Amino acid sequence: MGYTLAQKIIKSHLVSGDMTPGTEIGLKIDQTLTQDATGTMAYLEFEAMGIKRVKTEKSVAYIDHNTLQTGFENADDHRYIQTVAKKHGIYFSRPGNGICHQLHLERFGRPGATLIGSDSHTPTAGGIGMLAFGAGGLDVAVAMGGGTYYIPMPRMVKVTLTGRLRPWVSAKDIILEVLRRLTVKGGVGKIIEYGGEGILGLSVPQRATITNMGAELGATTSIFPSDDVTLEFLKAQGRESDWIELLPDGDAKYDEVIEINLSELEPLAAKPHSPDNVDTVKNIGPIKINQVCIGSCTNSSLYDMMRVASILRGNKVHPDVSLAIAPGSKQVFTMIAQNGALADMIAAGARILECACGPCIGMGQSPCSGGVSLRTFNRNFEGRSGTADAKVYLVSPETAAISAITGVLTDPRTLGTEPEIRLPETFLINDNMIEPPADEKEADNIEVVRGPNIKPFPKTSPLSDNIEAPCLLKVGDNITTDHIMPAGAKLLPYRSNIPKLSDYCFTRCDETFPSRAKKAGKGIIVGGSNYGQGSSREHAALVPLYLGIKAVVAKSFARIHMANLVNAGILPLIFRNPDDYDKIAQGDELELNSVRETLISGKDLILTDKTNGAKIPVYCEISERQRKMLLAGGLLNYTREQNR
Ligand code: MIC
Ligand code: SF4
């Protein structure tokens, strides 16, 4: 039997396991990336491991999230990352160089290799046929040290694209259609492979828009074949030698096949407050808008910017609309500056932002109260924009640009004939914002500079045999890590200061949570299905750990967050009968007995609700390795035990 594309890369990187779906596999990791909001933690963890130099083929530290410097904190973190990278063999991408995923695609990713990154949109690199995963910072630290990366072996889904996109319909509309069909839970435990003749008409940046938002499906990763289109892209980046052809075998077997006829697609939008709440732009109708934001790791390529500029050329941004544009990288920014597209944007009235995540992570440009914002980004979770009652719609760059002119949500097909955008055969290459690491001899003399905002991370202790704690919070389905540990301009500066962050934990769900948690000193969280979807931020586990959370009991978990809970030594427990969720009320006193013994035996644990007497069977869906890790009190303790 033949192999799928992903199975081929997994097979060539397999360190442990036998590729049976659902069982744990260990993978050798070729490359890693970090960004600054998760990077400080990842490098503190790497330092704690005591390894001198990274053992990967390439590791890159990007600065793109925390670029609003309203105090010393972010700049201090940048300096810490810069010095720690230089010392330990890591390439450093300076602030201003661009967004990690866009840059990694342009300058470092290569087909057939494995990549993990401390950011959930790392699968963007699947656009060039790379097997790329989002992971917690600790997992990235371990991989930098040459350690194996473990995941449950995913099932394989094939999305066959037929036909060709009609004018004004774009790659964003393809992934929004996939989200409409599969939902934010539809990709959990799966790798999504794209194929069919429809992919031939999609350039690498268009493919990357699609693999990027595979994260919103909850998918383990998404990937496109490496073909002539990939070769053309790598050639344009002066990296032809990184190309290999990589296709699935003709007789590869998929667990699920989905077909999308591109010729039938029309412009789509994800309505507030979830990326899968998708409808056609036509159906939603001409709602009045206050803001348009174009950019993010989903839609900030040269092609996207050229399309936007061609729509804005000779027009004026509507007086009631604020249009912000952030190109994805210095390469894109320079090229639109040179070819005149930037001048068209400025002339139309756009507010040009530096190439960084910016408004996507609430770093500035929060909409007005109750405002409607159209964004080419990938997440529209409630409050993420920084304005609690804003309504964010996710749309293509084309829909965003035309709507910025009309002042209402507008179908770009009303624009008439589509202009042809020709991309140059070679891109402008200037890597002077990427600093290579010091060589081994020089490294010893480099001092790592730590600012006063960097606080040690919380300590864990081995798992207790009896856990008695109140249900401190009960939440519903699809709770995101943005609910658990919000980001934005006010909080991102404290990503290396867990005690400070703890004052904001879960405040999007319940303002009183931090003070109640601090008073109780311990607690258990009860959640619905897909608990912890969204970002890879391990702070959503480390901060609850700091607040004394011993376990989270949920109907199901998102993959990266569950791995982060285990790494932090917090029990991720799943209801054996999902209806038992209704038996627990917030405030109930809960108890788990003989935890260690039962976990070792693999039997269900019994959660007793002492307030109403209910006995609720719960279990952990973890590997043998993770079981040991939980018993030891998390990954750091486990690694220390192993090295003893
Ligand atoms: C996000 O889009 O939510 C982020 C910010 O990029 C996160 C990482 C983080 O929380 O730092 C992600 O997607 O993993
Ligand atoms: Fe940055 Fe937004 Fe992409 Fe996250 S989703 S990496 S915040 S641009």
Automatic annotation (TrEMBL):
Q: Which residues form the Aconitase/3-isopropylmalate dehydratase large subunit alpha/beta/alpha domain?
A: 7-407
MF (Gene Ontology): 4 iron, 4 sulfur cluster binding; aconitate hydratase activity; metal ion binding
Superkingdom to which the source organism belongs: Bacteria
One GO biological process term is: tricarboxylic acid cycle
CDD domains of this UniProt entry?
AcnA_Bact (cd01585), AcnA_Bact_Swivel (cd01579)
As cofactor, the record names: [4Fe-4S] cluster
Any one GO CC term of the record: cytosol
Kindly give the SUPFAM superfamilies that the UniProt entry links to this protein.
Answer: Aconitase iron-sulfur domain, LeuD/IlvD-like
Aconitase A/isopropylmalate dehydratase small subunit swivel domain segment(s): 520-577
Q: Which keywords, in A-to-Z order, does the entry hold?
A: Iron, Iron-sulfur, Metal-binding
| Gene3D superfamilies found in the cross-reference section | Aconitase, domain 3, Aconitase, domain 4
Keyword Metal-binding: yes or no? yes
Q: What InterPro entries does the annotation carry?
A: Acnase/IPM_dHydase_lsu_aba_1/3, Acoase/IPM_deHydtase_lsu_aba, Aconitase/3IPM_dehydase_swvl, Aconitase/IPM_isomerase, Aconitase_4Fe-4S_BS, Aconitase_4Fe-4S_dom, Aconitase_put, AconitaseA/IPMdHydase_ssu_swvl
One Pfam match, given by its short name, reads Aconitase
> Per the record's keyword annotation, is Glycosyltransferase included, yes or no?
no
Q: What is stated as this protein's family in its record? A: Belongs to the aconitase/IPM isomerase family.
Q: How does it assemble?
A: Monomer.
Q: What is the name of the protein in this document?
A: Aconitate hydratase
From what organism does this protein derive?
Answer: [Clostridium] cellulosi
